[in-house]
Design a protein that fits this description.
Blueprint (H helix, E strand, L loop, with lengths): L30 H19 L1 H53 L7 H7 L1 H5 L12 H32 L1 H14 L7 H9 L2 H26 L3 H9 L4 H39 L4 H10 L3 H30 L8
């Protein structure tokens, strides 16, 4: 009887059905033991040799959860700070107005009466019904034109003079006393002088705006130029950079936030002043409209003019702050 050899067969590489143990090519180790070993090695590799996979998965999950929570918080913050609180302030102001109008109804209209009385101005702001009968939109544009001309002329003078004061100590000693004397003078004090110089109201109003726009821009520009770190200037001198390149490449970019702060202050003051100037000089403008409606005892239109002046000033400040962001690539600070 021929005996069967128990030596492993080179071709046996799998475990047979029915429990017969087949051998693997690599030796006498059974295939099912090899499979178990592979499973254990893979588990050990996942648990100990490659922890970054689990950590990364956990980080992604944490980021997703934090992102959802931050999104909910941002929406809540945006609603409260941008919608809810400002709406509460306006509601409180309108309520106060309504209460005062209730006790002085013979003189002051309530908000609803003011709205209904000014519907024609609101719905048709650019009408023309005669030489002196213009919509409030035309009056607003006339005032804006005067303000922008005077403001731009003032900026063209104030910024170079501010640079001169910031860069030169002798110039600062010469100009600073003049600035400190003229700066506290009321803008309306310049109106008789301008009327004597020009003889007509239009250039006189622009001249008053020009004078008004000088001081804040000039002082803030000089402050910004003087605040440039000395190390920047020393490095430019070591590199033998010409003076004009120092001004345009180093001093001007570092001074831009200060310059825009001065411009915002000057524009706000100019918009305040034009209303008073137009009250005194007459003509076409939102200030003269306000004064004329008061002379007619039409307080509904006076309230309309006040709201238009306030909203326009807010829009002007917002526009110049957006311009600051575009030029400096830095967020504008509120109230700066």
């Amino acid at each position: 009887m021929k005996r069967t050899s128990l030596s492993p067969s080179p071709s046996a590489n799998f475990v047979g059905i029915g429990g017969r143990l087949k051998r693997n090519r690599i030796g006498d180790i059974p295939a099912n033991i090899l499979a178990l070993s592979g499973f254990l090695v893979g588990t050990a590799h996942y648990l100990y040799l490659d922890p970054y996979i689990r950590v990364n998965n956990m980080n992604i999950a944490a980021i997703l959860v934090a992102g959802r929570a931050t999104g909910r918080q941002a929406k809540a913050w945006l609603f409260k700070d941008v919608v809810l609180y400002p709406a509460m302030g306006f509601i409180g102001l309108i309520t106060l107005w309504w209460m005062i109008a209730t006790f002085r109804s013979e003189l002051m209209p309530n908000p609803w009466q003011a709205l209904t009385s000014n519907l024609d101005y609101i719905l048709h702001p650019f009408y023309r019904r005669g030489p002196g009968n213009l919509g409030i939109g035309w009056l607003l544009l006339a005032s804006l034109r005067r303000v922008l001309i005077g403001f731009l002329l003032g900026a063209l003078v104030a910024i170079p003079v501010g640079f001169l004061i910031g860069l030169s100590r002798p110039a600062m000693l010469i100009l600073n006393p003049i600035i400190q004397i003229l700066r506290p003078v009321s803008p309306l004090a310049w109106l008789p002088i301008s009327l004597a110089m020009f003889g007509v109201a239009e250039p006189s109003a622009i001249f008053v705006i020009f004078i008004t726009s000088l001081w804040s821009t000039m002082i803030n520009t000089a402050l910004g130029v003087g605040s440039v770190p000395k190390d920047y200037i020393d490095v430019a001198r070591v590199l033998e950079m010409p003076k004009y390149r120092q001004i345009f490449k180093i001093i001007l970019p570092a001074s831009l936030p200060y310059i825009f702060t001065g411009l915002r202050l000057s524009l706000g003051i100019a918009w305040l002043v034009i209303v008073a100037v137009e009250m005194l000089t007459g003509g076409v403008g939102i200030g003269f409209f306000l004064w004329d409606e008061w002379n007619r005892l039409n307080l509904s239109s006076v309230f309309l003019a006040v709201i238009v002046i306030g909203v326009t000033g807010l829009i002007l400040d917002y526009l110049i702050s957006r311009l600051q962001v575009l030029v400096t690539h830095r967020p504008a600070k509120p109230g700066s």
